What does this fold into?
Amino acid sequence: MKKDRLSLFLIIFLILSIGLTGCNYEVAEVAHIEKDFKDKLVVHFIDVGQGDSTFIQFPNGESSLIDGGTRKSGDKVVNYLKDLDIGKIDYLIATHPHEDHIGGLPEVIRNFNIGKVYMPDKTANTAIFEELLKEIKNKDLKITLAEGGNSIIDDEKFQFTILAPNRDDYIETNDFSIVTKIEYIDASFILTGDAEKSSELDMINKNYNLKSNVIKIGHHGGRTSSSQEFLKKVDPDYSIISVGADNTYGHPHKETLDRLNKLDSNIIRTDELGDIVIVSNGKETTISEKIITETETKVQYIGNKNTKVFHTKDCNSLPKEENRIFFNSLEEAKENGYKPHKNCIK
Ligand SMILES: [Zn+2]
Ligand SMILES: [Zn+2]
It folds into this structure.
């Protein structure tokens, strides 16, 4: 159902694009068309392999980069931003001092004008952290320490807010992650860095409004993040997992995927789809067409949530829309306890 609504918005957008650009049927690069549009919120989950890098273009023309992937992916992030004709990054956020988040940031700082820099009150004795501090100093930038409840942008139409960290005594470095939320009329995104259970619990206890249409899942889908209580509060339509293919950590963990499936959230992964771009005008939120087609063609089997029987997607006795659950493979369906329908699966 969610997917149908999304496709509809995409079709509307396609018609609009054709109208505006003459005969441009290419919508795979939504963001590149959209970049000239005013009043749009564009969120790019840049594929940096096993790491995180999210770039946000706000409706007022300002921008923010949250993390820059590993050192190896610094060039990729720089080129991605240059392709978007970005001159200045207004808000640079280093969620926490792990290499898969800050590794690419020194290269980014060397290449762009930077406005404010946000970091948590947490240091690391690593070469990459020292290098980051050096580049910040070289550019005469100051570090603003991030704390839950602080506001980065409080515009009439949209807000960019810090929800974590809420303490300075976490045991795990990941729990110091800066968590941010973007709200633009009806659209909302929560970006959780590598925050784990302790930080999630603190955000719940602070009574922050966590409900969001889109979540960037914490710690690449690791099982010690994304607790059921936290996910329930967020209740996301779309869950983005930034993760490298065949990574040594086994991310995303099955437990996390199970919790998301329980919530019926659409899981979208950078290891499967590459860069992910989501655009919102504050009312409708669309994902670039490439993502939708690939997600839909990936669905091979459709299960019935009531009978726990699954079918091929062209079977003529498919369950009602509201009872459907989608699987990408026979194994996935079976692992979830579904039995094959005798008529369509031999
Ligand atoms: Zn981390
Ligand atoms: Zn990480």
